[in-house]
Design goal:
Pfam families: ATP-grasp_4. By secondary structure, the chain is an alpha+beta fold. The protein folds into 3 domains: 4-97, Rossmann fold (3-Layer(aba) Sandwich); 127-197, Dna Ligase, domain 1 (2-Layer Sandwich), CATH 3.30.1490; 203-406, ATP-grasp fold, B domain (D-amino Acid Aminotransferase, Chain A, domain 1, 2-Layer Sandwich), CATH 3.30.470. It contains 12 helices and 19 strands. The strands form 4 sheets. The protein has an 8-stranded antiparallel sheet, sandwiched between helices. A 4-stranded parallel sheet has the order 3-2-1-4, with helices on both faces. Helix 4 packs antiparallel against helix 5, helix 5 (102-109) crosses helix 6 (111-120) and helix 7 (134-144) crosses helix 8. 40% of the residues are buried. The model has no long low-confidence stretch (mean pLDDT 94).
Length: 415
């Protein structure tokens, strides 16, 4: 009899899922393109690892899956990596595995298709335009006569997103997009880009699970953004209980109903303008990114990766969704260009909580700028009974941190 396995395709969490699933008793086969960093210790826990740059090619992916199905009894197939969502959902629909409708998955991954669908369904959106040339972008910028946001059509982790004021900045953003596309071997598309009206305001997100029985609301997160022109995320509080929470949840239910979101985890980001109007920024059919799984685990005393795997296996979500605690995440980004290292004095830190500190620059390394969430130098996660206690714990950690920067001044007007 074939061994029963779950197939995880391209982790969005550095393969932490493999560890948590193994601890929960699952046997995991992991498929990865090798494009993003995975923790080798956790890869070693998988019963099999398939690593190939051709993973994004539909025919190759399908052949690999069919070989796995001949070798194992596959219980479910899922991904936590944005770029594989369309392929995985298409295969699951074809083979009868529980997963999101593939047409909806594709429309959510394409930012322009999503904006058009929002408009069709009556959601308020910022002004937007799909551009295929710099000249089209310059025309939109001139017509708006205000700041706009440059977005890759299918990017993730805020990579390539930038606030634009001038034609020069637009061209710089487009050059960055071409570099991103080259680095990802065309996975990030560069044949077009999306420009949107810039809506300033506070950011919130909502996490929920849809199974065959209904909606399981996990909660709202209050999110803090770094300074423009990039839109990196520097702070999270989960679950957030504020005056805006009810409106965010109400808008989330409206999204589920109108878009007919039928299955799986989902993460929606919102911005609230000065008039209190909510705009959906983007929707990702997975929960918020690394290391935010920790916030859910700590606040709700669950193994969220194991719970999601059970959902994909059975079609039913059974985990606890009532938070007994509050959890926070603070991300520290490079303050300037130069060689930076971080030294942390001896403090209690463990992934078991209530404080978990990840130092991403224990040794001096060169940083040129902050352009995406992947550029963080320090992650401080805390969990306590109240939001205030979490913040005080995070501040206590920060007071034990020393940041060393070696840099040289640069005359700004030199060509």
């Amino acid at each position: 009899m074939s061994a029963k396995v779950v197939v995880l395709v391209e982790s969005g969490n550095h393969a932490y899922e493999i560890r948590d699933l193994t601890q929960a008793g699952y046997a995991v086969v992991y498929m990865t393109s090798g494009m993003y960093r995975n923790v080798q210790e956790y890869l070693d826990m998988a019963v099999e690892v398939i690593r190939d740059k051709k993973l994004f090619e539909p025919e190759f992916f399908e052949r690999q899956m069919e070989e796995l199905e001949r070798k194992y009894a596959v219980a479910c197939v899922f991904t936590t990596g944005d770029f594989m969502i369309p392929l995985v959902t298409q295969y699951c629909r074809k083979k009868g595995y529980h997963n999101l409708d593939p047409e909806l998955a594709q429309s959510l991954r394409n930012k322009h298709a999503f904006r058009e669908k929002q408009t069709e369904l009556g959601f308020k959106t910022p002004a937007f335009r799909l551009c295929r040339t710099i000249e089209e972008g310059e025309a939109f910028l001139a017509g708006m006569n205000k700041a706009i946001v440059f977005k890759p059509v299918n990017g993730n982790q805020s990579e390539g997103i930038r606030l634009i004021y001038t034609s020069e900045e637009l061209r710089e953003a487009y050059e960055t997009l071409k570099l991103l596309s080259r680095f990802t071997k065309g996975v990030v598309e560069n044949s077009a880009f999306l420009l949107e009206e810039y809506v300033p305001g506070p950011i919130y997100s909502c996490e929920f699970i849809k199974d065959h029985g209904g909606v399981h609301m996990l909660g709202v997160t209050n999110r803090y953004l770094g300074e423009p022109p990039s839109f990196v995320e520097s702070g999270f509080i989960f679950p957030y209980q504020g005056a805006e929470t009810e409106a965010v949840i109400k808008e989330t239910y409206a999204f589920i109903e109108r878009f007919q979101f039928d299955f799986g985890p989902c993460h929606i980001e919102y911005i609230m303008d000065n008039d209190g109007q909510l705009f959906i920024l983007e929707v990702n059919p997975r929960l918020f990114g690394f290391p935010c799984y920790w916030l859910i685990n700590q606040a709700m005393s669950v193994n969220i990766f194991a719970s999601i795997t059970s959902l994909f296996e059975t079609g039913v979500f059974t985990a606890n969704t009532q938070a007994a605690k509050v959890a926070t995440l603070f991300e520290y980004y490079p303050p300037t260009q130069g060689y930076i290292s971080i030294d942390i004095q001896s403090i209690p830190s463990s992934e078991e909580g209530p404080v978990w500190v990840m130092n991403h620059a224990p040794q001096s390394r060169f940083v040129s700028s902050t352009s995406s969430n992947n550029d963080t130098l320090l992650s401080v996660l805390t969990c306590a009974d109240t939001e205030q206690q979490c913040i005080e714990m995070a501040q206590s950690v920060c007071e034990s941190v020393e940041v060393t920067v070696r840099t040289k001044p640069k005359v700004p007007y030199l060509v």
